[in-house]
Specification:
The chain has one helix at 238-246; strands spanning 4-11, 25-33, 40-46, 66-68, 71-75, 80-84, 89-94, 102-107, 113-117, 122-126, 132-137, 166-172, 175-180, 185-188, 195-197, 203-209, 212-217, 221-226, 232-237, 254-260, 265-271, 297-302, 307-313, 321-327. It is mainly beta. The longest helix has 9 residues, at 238-246.
């Protein structure tokens, strides 16, 4: 794998220590990184236009994306952007009033789009032109029982606390699945009752790769499920790998973003941990703010040998939050 695309954001230079994520980042950025040299450059910098954000202080960052062929399907909190690679020509743009705190977007086989609409605890299916086809409340109820169809949620800074916090959408055949942070699982929305239990900790991602589904958990584990049986085949604790190598406790950061290289090697993303008034989100950290915090970085692991092969600090390249890792198009 020659180069990687990394999606995330750059932090504002002047802020309070407990600044919330919805005001924390001044620009959404995409880095192109060479793993062989560790060098990276900013391929794209982007800011959400005023009509699609709550205020002048709103954060700008890319959340989790999907790379299919030569098209990158990316999202900010309130927008979906489609880029043609490798030139990053923008060929699609959707921003709907119901979008709030989007966390992931992916295309379906028939050319439509699925988005984890995290702020409304919802998954939305829509056309590239922005026509909504289906909406699912990820808790199984009426999608609009707690929210109003008459509100433009792009203009609402935050709807926290979320009851489920859906953050990754994927398909198994024609079935629509989503990860739920709070419930520690992935559930099928189109065939209710199917569930993957990720009880070890709160999950992110949900990447289908061959017969495997890769999840990350916020505390630094990779959970691998079998796409056919839906059973958990393997749990790799990345903290244990670092404890074994360094003989000490290591605070890796908020774990989010994964890219398998082959059956044994995976890239994983980590974002520096910061305080939040929603302290339940960081209760998995025993001594988070008494220990030295690891910088935002990516790391390559051999999950068979249980070793870390490479770590690359991203903060020197202006990336302070990372959501996704993708193979670059030559």
């Amino acid at each position: 794998m020659s180069s990687l695309y990394l999606l995330g954001g750059r932090q504002r230079k002047s802020l309070f220590k407990n600044e919330e994520e919805q005001r924390l980042y001044e620009a959404a950025i995409i880095l192109i990184l060479s793993p062989s040299t560790g060098d990276a450059t900013v391929e794209l910098e982007y800011k959400t236009p005023p009509e699609a954000r709550a205020s002048d202080e709103s954060s700008h960052s890319f959340k989790s994306a999907s790379l299919v062929g030569n098209k990158l399907y990316a999202c900010t909190s309130t927008e979906v952007l489609i880029f043609e690679l490798p030139g990053f020509k923008r060929i699609g743009y959707i921003s709907l009033p119901c979008f709030n705190d989007l966390h992931h977007v992916t295309p379906t086989a028939d050319g439509n789009l699925l988005a984890a609409n995290t702020g409304l605890d919802m998954v939305v299916l829509f056309t590239p032109e922005g026509r909504i086809l289906s909406e699912w409340d990820v808790l199984g109820g009426d999608p609009w029982s707690r929210f109003s169809r008459h509100v433009d949620y792009r203009r609402v800074e935050s709807t926290k606390p979320h009851l489920a916090h859906p953050n990754g959408v994927f398909q198994l055949g024609e079935e629509v699945w989503v990860t739920r942070l709070t419930q520690k699982d992935a559930i099928c929305l189109s065939t209710p009752g199917k569930r993957i239990n990720i009880e070890v900790q709160r999950p992110h991602d949900g990447l289908v790769w061959g017969d495997r589904i890769y999840f990350t958990t916020v505390d630094g584990r990779v959970v691998i499920a079998n796409r056919h049986s839906l059973a958990i085949d393997q749990i790799i604790d990345l903290n244990e790998i670092h404890r074994s190598e360094h003989q000490q406790e290591v605070l890796l950061g908020w774990c989010r973003g994964i890219l398998p290289v082959d059956d044994r090697r995976v890239w994983v993303g980590f974002t520096r941990v910061r305080k939040t008034k929603f302290t339940e989100n960081v209760l998995w950290i025993k001594h988070a703010f008494r220990e030295k915090e690891s910088p935002t970085h990516i790391a390559l692991y051999d999950i068979e040998k249980k070793v870390c092969l490479r770590e690359i600090d991203l903060e020197g390249f202006g990336m302070n939050v990372i959501f996704g890792i993708y193979p670059a198009i030559p």
